[in-house]
Amino acid sequence: VKVQPAVDPRRVALAILANVPGVTPIESADLFSTFRRQITGLLRAMLGILATTAVLSWALMSLVFSLAMSARGREIAVLRALGAGRATILCLLSAEAGLPGLAGGAAGVGLAGLAVYLFQRLIASSLGVPYLFPHLGLLLGMAAAAVAQTLMAVALAALWPLWRIGSREPALAMAD
């Protein structure tokens, strides 16, 4: 309710509360601060969930790489015994870890972009706001950043297993 400048909005709110059943008046200053607090809380919760998901996926990727490289310990030991240096082995295993990461990141970005494009009208109508796609350069930049983040996560997840495999002596690895 819009009130005159000389009228106290709190008194009007109290009068509405007392005289109109089922209605709870909210002063506009309280309305926007409440909305801001709710959105801030929602954003913090989403960031917490995102961080937890990122840490858990990183740990899972690290475990998968560790298991895969442990299973190939003898193969790596034979390569080392035949003269392949640690740098060569690390490059080979890094590429082996990075290529699926690159393919998965690109596929994920592509499928997400396709889904948003196909359902843009549904998204706009459910949110009640117009939906405009950013220009192509910005979309490609965001896609490249997402794929780069995927590769960085894969590299970090593979770092410990790669270091552990690369530091083993070939004779000990063959004995396992």
In helices, the fraction of residues equals over 70%
Distance from N terminus to C terminus (CA atoms, Å) equals 79 Å
Please mark out the parts with pLDDT under 50 across 5 or more consecutive residues, or reply none.
none
Beta-strand residue percentage: under 5%
Radius of gyration equals 28 Å
The helix/strand order is: HHHHHHH
Category from helices, strands and their pairing: mainly alpha
Biggest sheet details:
none
- Provide mean pLDDT, rounded: 83
Describe this protein's structure:
Helices cover 81% and strands 0% of the residues. The termini are far apart. The protein is mostly helical. The mean pLDDT is 83. α4 packs antiparallel against α6. The protein contains 7 helices and no strands.
